[in-house]
Amino acid sequence: MTTRRGFLAAIGTSAIGVTLSALAQQPRVFRIGWISIDRAAGSPFLDPLRAGLRDLGYFEGRNLAIEARWGDESMERSEQLAAELVQLKPQIIVTQGPTAFLLRKAGATMPVVFGFSGDPVEAGFVDSLPRPGRNYTGMSFLSLDLVGKRMELLREMLPGLKRVAIIARPEHPGEQGELRVSQAAAKSLGLAVSYFPIKSTQELEDALAAVPKSRSEAIVAFPDAVMMRFSERVAAFSVKNRVPAISGWAQFAERGNVMTYGPVLRDGFRRLAYFVDRILKGAKPADLPVELPTSVELVINMKTAKALGLTIPQSILVRADRVIE
Fold first, then answer.
1. Which residues of 12-38 are buried (b: 16+ CB within 10 A; e: fewer)?
2. What confidence tens digit (pLDDT) does each residue in 199-230 have?
3. Residue 295 in 3-state DSSP?
4. Whose C-alpha in 63, 122, 183, 294 is 20 to 30 A from the C-alpha of 176?
């Protein structure tokens, strides 16, 4: 015969068993951070990362939480947010562009996965691309092998081209290497180069004002997050002065410039999910080689071409991945 005490004990044991079983079935929630200098509404890069994470089995609201921070194009605000994010101690922080420097300044010791436009070795984030050796790894979008192709596209679009203006930020890691490769590519095509280093909005204005005086007939803008913030200003100058401008990221053409040829950044940020997954499963960022882009795109803005009075050769149009009308 079952006693009252035995009956209550049986119920209690059963309840504990049910509770433990329920707890065991609850998925572990991974917590990662995201920080960008961009505005949330204008950035196309967090969504590809999310998509990549979903492909690998991570779903927000189920087993993933993302602490996203947006700098609204302010380095001062981004610096404050970087410090705040580090204090939250997520398992991993994914960073876009120059905010990688801010995380280091904030003392981030957790794994940091970057999508970085420059040379991460020169920036001091990693010891080498194949063996990062530190708490940083990810993708570098510095594609030196594509620099010559941009020069060739300019020459194909402008057969009489003689001089090209290069606008770049000298403090950007990898800029000197990109400049050397650009100068060599221009020389092989019989083109002269005028180089305009910029560090601020005012220096950009000074450089643009100097372009016509240098008799440059086209502009090559080295791609990085800060230069993309200047892209609309470059586009306005380009159309007004009939000097076509090319760069390496699709945003440059989307914001009114005539052409871009370079890595598909959306694919790159989707690929960052691979690094997040490996680290969450126990890999060390020090042992995960930094990767370079594997997909490229040619984007042409036909509206800008018409405003410039340019006829884009059919030989270029047929190779375009995207044409903006």
1. eeeeeeeeeeeeeeeeeebebbbbbbb
2. 888 999 999 999 999 999 999 999 998 888 89
3. coil
4. 294
Residues 6+ apart with CB under 8 A from 86: 93, 103, 106, 107, 108, 110
How far apart are alpha carbons 221 and 235 in whole angstroms?
11
Kindly report the backbone phi and psi dihedral angles of residue 54, in degrees, each rounded to the nearest multiple of 5, phi listed first: -60, -40
Residues of the chain with pLDDT under 50: 1, 22-23
Q: Provide the edge-to-edge strand list for the sheet that holds 322-324.
A: 192-197, 163-168, 218-221, 245-247, 259-263, 296-301, 322-324
Task: Write phi, then psi, for 291 (nearest 5 degrees).
Answer: -105, 160
User: According to the model, what pLDDT value does residue 23 have?
Assistant: 47
CA distance 91 to 153: 44
CA pair distance 36, 21, nearest whole angstrom: 40
For residues 319 and 156, the answer to whether their CB atoms sit within 8 Å is no
Q: Is 135 helix (H, G, I), strand (E, B) or coil?
A: coil
